[in-house]
Amino acid sequence: MFSWLGTDDRRRKEPEVFQTVSDGLKKLYKTKLLPLEENYKFHEFHSPALEDADFDNKPMVLLVGQYSTGKTSFIRYLLEQDFPGMRIGPEPTTDSFIAVMHGDTEGVIPGNALVVDPKKPFRKLNAFGNAFLNRFVCAQLPNPVLESISVIDTPGILSGEKQRISRGYDFAAVLEWFAERVDRIILLFDAHKLDISDEFSEVIKALKNHEDKIRVVLNKADQIETQQLMRVYGALMWSLGKIVNTPEVIRVYIGSFWSHPLLIPDNRKLFEAEEQDLFKDIQSLPRNAALRKLNDLIKRARLAKVHAYIISSLKKDMPSVFGKENKKKELIASLGDIYKRIEREHQISPGDFPNLKKMQDQLQAQDLHKFQPLKPKLLEAVDDMLAHDIAGLMILVRQEETQLPNPVVKGGAFDGTLDGPFGHGYGEGAGEGIDEENNRIVIGKANLNTGVAFFTRKLTLKNMLKTLKLAKVIHRKL
Questions:
Q1: Which of 85, 301, 377, 419 has an alpha carbon within 20 to 30 A of 196's alpha carbon?
Q2: Model pLDDT for residues 71-103, shown as the tens digit of each residue
Q3: CA distance 9 to 463
Q4: Which of 182, 178, 176, 179 is nearest to 289 (CA)?
Q5: Nearest 10 degrees: CA dihedral of 302, 306, 309, 315?
Q6: SS3 assignment, position 205
Q7: What are the chain's domains?
Q8: Do the Cβ atoms of 313 and 373 come closer than 8 Å?
Q9: Whole-structure pTM over 0.85, yes or no?
Q10: Backbone angles phi, psi at 151, to 5 degrees
């Protein structure tokens, strides 16, 4: 007779069925997580609201590093072609954030036009103002690599307080915004420039909650001898250990990521193996994109829950009439004790809480009396999403992975890196020493130079075929 009373409970226990992971994430976010964020001003404290484009966009790779560490050359190396707005030089050349994305025709979209495009995941960047938008562009070009991933090039990080102020926008905050939405963060270091400036240190600390996305590349390693390389690698690990406070060792890839021959080829095997490892990691991004978005939504939901407890606790302790300002100062000063109390009452891990100092600074500009009290229904909806709906999406993630038409990144430097005479292992066995300039094959009176003048480390398929034909001619003559 009263069976309708239990329909809400049954609906809560039975997870919803979705057609795709992307659609499921959109619906769960809008119906269960977004109401909690809006009620407790999550977007003012932590991160802007997510939009459909954030769930639909291709995997993105963010390149971060000091000036002249080879960030733009790294993109050029991956694509094997120039992109609009590209500038390479030993001096600080890239002064803008450049989103390198796929397009039918080559062109550049300026930042102010880019943030109003609903198909691009950059709409929320308008909060950083014109000073940033004037330094933000999207370079579009038809390239097979960009059909699977997008790459974000960033300005070179300088040292000194003056450079940071002259940018006109919060550089670390912009990088933190990108870090929340990208699939991989690559920190590039120059083998001759290992010093970590104050701004670079601030940037690395801003990426603290995204260690799982960070990969480190020691670039230009072919310019130093083996013994020096060993010392440089140790110095880099020592410098990173002081900033990245994790018990695990960060994975560092060593190599020379541009299309020129190696200056010192002693460590060729090492560089080739490291390049393969890095390329495999990047190639796995499309296959793991849905899982990464799911993981980021779970992290966001956990932070939103903790934020709701903090805001409601502050509201509960605020007086209703007199002494609001003094009580506000007292509560902000004792925020650490409030953290510990919430941790005990709700059995929350200390790692789920936001940065204490940053939270105290943000609360200074807020009216604590206008905060909302705790609403159990909003929290129950998020708990239900984490306990039941996410489990259903995990099954769908595995199904989508097996049905992907292009599960790995293809084109550019990713083609032919494992097979072929100039791929991994090139220069071993019968081909050992083929890149040495003095290596010559004498046929009669003919002198054929097969040295580095004719070869680069990365040869296109067309050049490979030409070289194979030349080898056949030599074989017949011999």
A1: 85
A2: 888 999 998 888 887 877 666 666 789 999 998
A3: 66
A4: 182
A5: -130
A6: helix
A7: 21-50+292-402 (1.10.268.20), 60-284 (3.40.50.300)
A8: no
A9: no
A10: -125, 135
